[in-house]
Design a protein that fits this description.
With 216 residues, this protein is α/β, with parallel strands linked by helices. The chain has 8 helices and 11 strands. A hairpin with a 6-residue loop joins strand 10 and strand 11 (211-215). The longest helix has 15 residues, at 21-35.
Amino acid sequence: MPTFSCAAILFDLDGVLVDSTRAVDREWREWAQRKGVDGDAIMAIAHGVRTVEVIRRVAPHLNAEVEASAIENHEAGDQRGVTVMPGAADLLRQVPEGRWGVVTSGSRLLATNRLRYCGLPVPKVLVTSDDVIHGKPHPEPYLKGAAQLGFNPADCLVIEDAPAGIESARAAGTKVIGITSTYAAAKLTDADAVVGRLTEVRINSDGAQMLSVTIG
């Protein structure tokens, strides 16, 4: 039963705290059909990566910034099929205030709307695609998350569902738990531990400076 000691926890959003798989798939495939782009090619790389970077890769002939803004603004207003991940609300309640944040590849508007729609608190530390120059798998998002919480990355634990996010977190110097909500465990081997559901994770603070995170 692995146990991690950390000062703070950074959560990815989609696939970790909220289940938006159906909404993301719907949004991308509708956009792909309108633009004449291969939807399967998009979905092969879209999870955990900023919208603008996906567009740059699959449709370099388009204005990625304009297209990404349109996609995310529409997505922020269409939460059909989005649900809270099992165990997410309980897990967040186990973390002391000011000791957790969210680091997502989505926009601030999209992230805020999804959290509120699912009845989850919007943390003071929320790093989004609007806040970074380089998205995941670059370490910048998780470096910013740790800095905004006021902790060294080495003292932070990340919970991620996508290889790009795990790579970002590892490059930033954090410990990582992978969750198999979007990818099979075989794709998450760079994580320090892998779980099937958030309900397998327990956090104990006991008022101490460090948090104890137990799997099992």
